[in-house]
Amino acid sequence: MKMKSKRIVAVLLLLLMLSFVLSTSAYVLNPWKVSYGYLTYKWGPNTQVAGTMVRNGWENGANHIDNASILTVGYSSTGLGTLDAEYLISNSRYGTMTTYYNNGIVTSFYGYLNGAKSQLTSNPNVAQSTAIHELMHTFGYAHTTGTSIMSTSRDRTNIYTLQHDDYLGIAVKY
Ligand SMILES: [Zn+2]
What is the pLDDT of residue 92? Predict the structure, then answer.
């Protein structure tokens, strides 16, 4: 190979590597965090009964975050926020979370898993994936792409634990 074409190949390789780095999005931060990384939740009107797919999903998701990271998530009758079920038959969403904060610190939150979503109610991994995703919004993380629990396009049957990128995001805030 001539010197000039070698240089072109080198430049093309560099561009390829750069585009890969740019397309591999990392965690995205929300402008709030949970005080001391210590989150407590209570149940809502539709999650009073134990053993439902939605309530199991919330519990499994909360337990995973609690066990796998430096963050703490636990039930308390006086919890900071509420984890509930909604039943949206003709809605595509799996779950949703609204987080309230003051001076960058979470003051309250309200999360729903969609108990009418057949993909969620037929597969515990999907329910757990959704629960972790929604809880991580409250911990201060927004949507991202790539391999992350915060990716909206993740395969919820396979990505149902915190991923490398999520741990990097946790390390930045907590
Ligand atoms: Zn989300």
Answer: 85
Compute, in angstroms, the gap from residue 6 CA to the centroid of ligand 1: 45
Q: How many separate helices (H) and strands (E) can be counted in the chain? A: 5, 7
Q: Tell me, rounded to whole angstroms, the distance of Cα 160 from its chain centroid.
A: 9
Pairwise CA distance, residues 112 & 128, whole Å: 13
| Cα-to-chain-centroid distance, residue 118 | 20
- Report CA(144)–ligand 1 centroid distance (Å): 9
Q: Which of 79, 88, 41, 35 is nearest to 61 (CA)?
A: 41
For the chain, give every domain's residue range: 28-173
CATH H superfamily, domain 28-173: Collagenase (Catalytic Domain) (3.40.390.10)
Residue 154 in this model has a pLDDT that exceeds 70: yes
Quick one: average pLDDT of 112-129? Answer: 97
